[in-house]
Amino acid sequence: MSMKKNKPKIEQVISREKRISMVTCYDYSFACALAQTNVDIILVGDSLANVSLGLSDTKEVTIEEMLNHTQAVSKGAPDKLVIADIPYLGCQKKSSKPLEVAKKFIQAGADGVKIEWFRGCKKIVKDLVKNNIWVMGHIGLTPQTVHLLGGYKVQGKDRESANNLIKQAEQLQDLGVFSIVLECIKKDIAKEITDSLDIPTIGIGAGKYCKGQVLVLYDLLGLYPNNMKFVRTFFDLSRQVKKAINSFDQAIKKGTFPSDQESF
Fold first, then answer.
1. In terms of domains, do 260 and 213 share one?
2. How confident is the model at residue 3, as a pLDDT?
3. Are the C-beta atoms of residues 9 and 177 closer than 8 Å to each other?
4. Which end of the chain is more exposed for a tag (fewer CB within 10 A), N or C?
5. pLDDT score, position 16
6. Are residues 32 and 138 in the same domain?
7. C-beta of residue 77 within 8 angstroms of C-beta of residue 42
8. Domain containing 123: what range?
9. Whole-angstrom Cα distance, residue 98 to residue 180?
């Protein structure tokens, strides 16, 4: 199986002359809407564990659940670059087989996969790239292993940890990833990382110097309660949804829905 057929699309998206926009998406309907926007990349993130499934930890989402959501998004936005998170159970569990899992994501419609940094990720990235699978890296705050980082904290606050992040980014680039997500990293360190690489960085809580930015769709639309500093709500869709539902409820109780025009 080869991903080479998708190379022109990926090369166009990661062009150094352009800033990159990426949003998460978990379902067909939102994917259809995103298909008609200018957004560059759709990420089927394992954050769906929290946002869509109500789980407390991204580690709880299964491979099958991620595959189902990836297939739905890919159907809704067939002309967009779709990247899927390989979940903890498909990458970091001792019994996992990441290459087999990655191939399933490609078969489900993804153009590539994202892997969070952890102690054994270099071997996995090397194996996937060798098998012509496009890989996006992810360093800094890595939710799948947040317990090893002392919780949800900003990364790169001292020189030693900053140098470690720079080293991780350079190693991932050398292994062949096509871009790297920088999450919750001090903006000056994110700039150092971005300036040191030939591939683009995509920030989330990593300041303005990254080549691109990503947000969870439900966060930027105000549909999911998130008070993280880096989140900006671009539209309060939650308020509009509640208004519409209350209007629907009122129409039923007043007997104005359905009307004759809405009946057979």
1. no
2. 44
3. no
4. C
5. 58
6. yes
7. yes
8. 4-233
9. 19
225 shares a domain with 124: yes
Over residues 198-225, the pLDDT tens digits come to 999 999 999 999 999 999 999 999 998 7
Please tell me which residue in 65, 116, 183, 192 is annotated as part of the active site. 183
d(CA 180, CA 133): 15
**Which stretches within the chain are classed as H helix?**
7-13, 28-34, 48-51, 63-76, 88-91, 98-107, 121-130, 159-175, 187-196, 217-220, 237-254
Decide if 183 is catalytic.
Answer: yes
Q: Are 218 and 25 in contact (CB under 8 A)?
A: no
Distances (CA, A) of 63 to 53, 70, 232: 14, 10, 30
The pLDDT of residue 11: 79
- Intervals of the chain under pLDDT 50: 1-4, 7-8
Task: CATH number of the domain at 172, please.
Answer: 3.20.20.60
- Number of independent structural domains in the chain: 2
Report residue 26 as tokens. 């978990």
Q: Would you say 154 and 126 are in contact if contact means Cβ atoms under 8 Å apart? A: no
